[in-house]
Amino acid sequence: MDLLQILILAIVQGAAELLPISSSAHVIVAEKLMGLDPTAPDMTLLLVMLHTGTMFAVIVYFWKSWCASYFSSAQAFRSNAAYVVIATAITGVVGLALMEIIKHVVAGNAPGFEIEHLFGNSRLMAVALAAAGVLIIVSSRLRQGDKDLSVRSALWIGAVQGLCLPFRGFSRSGATISTGLAQGISRRRAEEFSFALAVVLTPPVIAREVLRLYKAQAAAVPAHSGELFHLFGPSLVGMVLSFLAGLAALRWLSRWLEQGRWHIFGVYCIVASLVVLWVG
Question: Which residues are registered as beta bridge partners of 147?
Answer without folding.
Answer: 185
